[in-house]
Amino acid sequence: MSAPPARITIKDVAARAGVSKGAVSLAFNRRPGLSEATRERIFAAARELGWEPNLSARSLSNQRVDAVGLAICRPARLLGLEPFYMEFISGIESVLTEHSCSLLLRLVRDLDEEVALQARWWRGRQVAGSILVDFHEGDPRVPALKDLGLPAVAVGHPSLTGDLVSVWTDDATAVAQAVRYLAALGHRRIARVGGPLSLGHSGIRSASFASTMAELGLDEAQQIATGFAGEEGARATRTLLLSARRPTAILYDNDIMAVAGAAVAAEMGLSVPQDLSLLAWDDSQLCRLTHPTLSAMSHDVHGFGAEVARTLFAVLAGEEAVSHQVPTPALTPRGSTAPPPA
Amino acid sequence: MSAPPARITIKDVAARAGVSKGAVSLAFNRRPGLSEATRERIFAAARELGWEPNLSARSLSNQRVDAVGLAICRPARLLGLEPFYMEFISGIESVLTEHSCSLLLRLVRDLDEEVALQARWWRGRQVAGSILVDFHEGDPRVPALKDLGLPAVAVGHPSLTGDLVSVWTDDATAVAQAVRYLAALGHRRIARVGGPLSLGHSGIRSASFASTMAELGLDEAQQIATGFAGEEGARATRTLLLSARRPTAILYDNDIMAVAGAAVAAEMGLSVPQDLSLLAWDDSQLCRLTHPTLSAMSHDVHGFGAEVARTLFAVLAGEEAVSHQVPTPALTPRGSTAPPPA
Hints:
2 copies of one chain form a homodimer. With 342 residues, chain A is α/β, with parallel strands linked by helices. Chain A has 3 domains: 10-59, 434 Repressor (Amino-terminal Domain), CATH 1.10.260; 67-169 and 301-325, Rossmann fold (3-Layer(aba) Sandwich), CATH 3.40.50; 171-299, 3-Layer(aba) Sandwich (Rossmann fold). Chain A has 15 helices and 12 strands. In chain A, strand 3 (129-132), helix 8 (141-148) and strand 4 form a beta-alpha-beta unit. The N and C termini of chain A lie far apart (98 Å).
């Protein structure tokens, strides 16, 4: 009896087509992310080798899944108040549209709910992959997504996102640059109004703020953690401006809080930037629409969303996607920063 | 030969359970929108009558579709700049979450692309129903959605939305109220900065503005149509303030353009409200974060989105959903409106 012929596997097809096994699987599952030419090459290789995918697996896969998932863990009311997410989503959509893909969007109450949702989306073939945001220390999504095998891109610092492919901004460097700039203008009492400390990136910014202040010998660092809404930024600004040692400069974690801070200064009879310097973050159109215009750590949030989506399509295509940074938020001085009052 | 027994139909099941045929179909298709009790009553009625749904139809329907579609016809970049949609989507999400439903979001280039997309979503069982926005005169989605049989709720005036169930705001009345208020303060040169005239609701507001101005004998009505972005509002405001007969009051179609208008006034050395009154629309948190705060036609956009989603669930449940208004935007005077300079 002769030896049975070696069984042709997906690996052989991948090798012949010069692609990864993941790409072969994508082609046969009619998932997005491959060029027409690559798809054709894979089908040709499979025909030549007489290979076809496991039929029971294929019966589940007769339709391309053309949606990408995004779960956001914020109360619905707050989501509408935060310019960041709308710009981020608009950037994601700009890339999804090129791939005829839609965004499956869901608000969740906590990360455990998100883990369950991602499992349902993936098993129900509702998403081809997901974008994960707002990482915490010891985030339960890191091991859960790995177990699921759901293709995903994490938006967060690699120290928080484990083995997931991540796209991130260097918040620590940007905060340090902001503090150094205000210090160079002559400010010594600099305060920061930031996001909730449970969020990994708020923690990174907070630590960088404290260490840069200490490095510069400016040891009176005051920081207030809020929830990102304008009203909270206003409240935090009032608290700071009423404190015994009033800061002469305030750094905010987004721009709506900085706009609110400028209104609080006006309401308290303080001139910006003569009496008080304000430095915003993210730099949506808001910063250019106020008078004076707001200095900001500019962050192309739309471009960030687009890069995250492009990275997810690379992951879906079985390409070697690696974690990488988008450009660090850059200082854009405008009308709200100046030397402190003499 | 005796007559064959009358065939039991879905109509009999619906009658026995005391619900519509649509509700029976929902229960067997495992779609959202029914209470557990109703679902149970329907299954009990079907068991008692020995009815079961057509199997070939059911084989497509073995899984509840727990997503609702929303296509928006705006360039991605502009979407991120418009607070309206984020608040509207946050309101939709607040209701979807209660029903364990996600929002399938897609940007489209034009209405024909949206028609094709809705057909694909519906035939591919990616959505249980859709929310349609930004209606035009003679909108192609009205006949197309009817042909598809896709459950939908239209956001727009019934004059634009045909047979679709619609949820709408009475923009004509709100504009008239805004003009009457400014006229009551003594303004005679009132201008309006609005959205693109291709949008049905911009046309309605524009017509109401012109007719109310004429009614009050204020015949110098200037209107500029823009694309809703802050920069466009700033440009339109500069044009108006440089015109030979400068307006003493400006009504805006959203709030970001009004914020931009306030900055333009400051940049041109005009005091708000002493030299120039500004009246915003929608009234997101922005209007309360500027100094002076902005008077606005307040519109609970989050609540509007929530009501639209609730109406869609009523349609999905086969209830008798009827077109209805949400509360008319109401005048909220704040710090940006006053009598004109003497």
